[in-house]
Each structure stands twice: as structure tokens, then as C-alpha cells.
Amino acid sequence: MPHRPATRHPIAHTTATTPHTTATTRHATAFTGRITIDPPLQRAEIDFLTAFAGPRSGPHRAPCDGLPARGRPLSWCQWVPTPDGTALVWDGNAPFYLADRWMRYLIDTFLSPRARMRRVLRGRRNEFPDELARFAFDHVLDGSIRVLEDDRVVSRISVRRNTVRFEGGGGECVAALFPPRTSSALLRPRTDGS
């Protein structure tokens, strides 16, 4: 079956697929759902987080952008705000590694009342992008993102009052997407022989 490129979905509920290839199998992985943001993001927050996603978020940028490296995953962030700022969704680009860690980084660094940038910006606002000076740091995130592999739910990223949890597990694709850090007990090998 030929690979179809992932598509961008600017709507609140996002579904797209990305191929994940292992030595013996090929899986299509999709992230569906949304994480709601209350109160909604302001325009400066939406613009910054949208621009931050993708290559600009990679760990190689940490020394250049001055943003906290602590907790910054070794991949690109692919969570983006909806145009109205009421939720975070997957940008639909493939592949997306460490999705749960990126969700945690965004909440802990930019969004929650206890965000790292809130403390870092005190007295140093001119050292960071202008948009950060207009961040509210008052958001509470809640919701669930389903991780589907070959059209079946294999795991879930849940956020409840700014606390991120990875739930579920299964085969190599999920283990590759979410390496065992805090969730190793939740990752179980497949029993269907694949």
C-alpha cells in the first residue's frame, strides 16, 4: 500500500496518520482528540506556540533560543494550538516522537500557573522573544489524546488539571513513540504474535 503523506487539520479534533516502520512491520499511527485550555490562549501565546512547533522546537535550538532545556525532549514538538486557542492538537506531521513528554514540557514551561518561564522572565523579559512577555501563565489543561496504531487504540495521553499521564501500551510502535521513562509498567508486549 503506498504511503499517503500526513495532512494538516486546523480543526479542534485532529486525525492524521504517519507511517512507522520497524524491521519487520509497517504501522500507521494517528493521534486523535484534543487537550482543552481554560482560559483560552491569547493571540501572542497562539502565535508563539504555533511558530515553536516543528524544527524550531528541537533540542539543538535550546542554546540559541534561551528557553529552558530541562525537560525538553530530544525531538520536535508537534502539539499546536487551535486557531481559537481553546485546545492543543497534533499538527498532523509525521513522525511524532515523545508526544507525552512534549505535552508535559509545554504545560510546565509555558502554560500553567507554575510554568518555568514565569519564574525565568522575572526581571529578564528583554532576553526572550517578545511574545513571552505577554504570556498569562494561568491556563489549566484537560483532555485526552488517543494513539491509534493501524486503526486501533493502543494508548492514550491524558491531561487532568495540568498533570500529564501516559496510559496503555502495546507493540513496538508505541514503545518507539514513548520510550519507557515513567510509564514502563504500562508498556506491555503484544500477545497476538505480531
Topology:
Layout: E1 17-21, E2 26-38, H1 43-52, H2 62-65, E3 79-81, E4 87-90, H3 99-111, H4 116-120, H5 130-133, E5 140-149, E6 152-160, E7 163-168, H6 172-177
Antiparallel strand pairs: 1-2, 2-4, 2-5, 3-4, 5-6, 6-7
Protein described:
- This protein has 194 residues and is α+β, with helices and mostly antiparallel strands.
- The protein has one domain.
- Helices cover 22% and strands 26% of the residues.
- The chain contains 6 helices and 7 strands.
- It has helices spanning 43-52, 62-65, 99-111, 116-120, 130-133, 172-177, and strands spanning 17-21, 26-38, 79-81, 87-90, 140-149, 152-160, 163-168.
- Strands 1, 2, 3, 4, 5, 6 and 7 form a 7-stranded antiparallel beta sheet that branches.
- A hairpin with a 5-residue loop joins strand 3 and strand 4 (87-90).
> How many H/I helical runs?
6
Q: How many angstroms does the end-to-end distance come to?
A: 19 Å
| Major sheet | 7 strands, antiparallel
SS content category: alpha+beta
Average predicted local confidence, pLDDT: 76
Radius of gyration: 17 Å
| Share in β-strands | 25-35%
Indicate the percent of residues in helices. 10-25%
Gist of the model:
The protein has 194 residues and is α+β, with helices and mostly antiparallel strands. The chain has helices at 43-52, 62-65, 99-111, 116-120, 130-133, 172-177; strands at residues 17-21, 26-38, 79-81, 87-90, 140-149, 152-160, 163-168.
Notable characteristics:
alpha+beta; disordered N terminus; seven-stranded antiparallel beta sheet; 22% helix; single chain; 194 residues
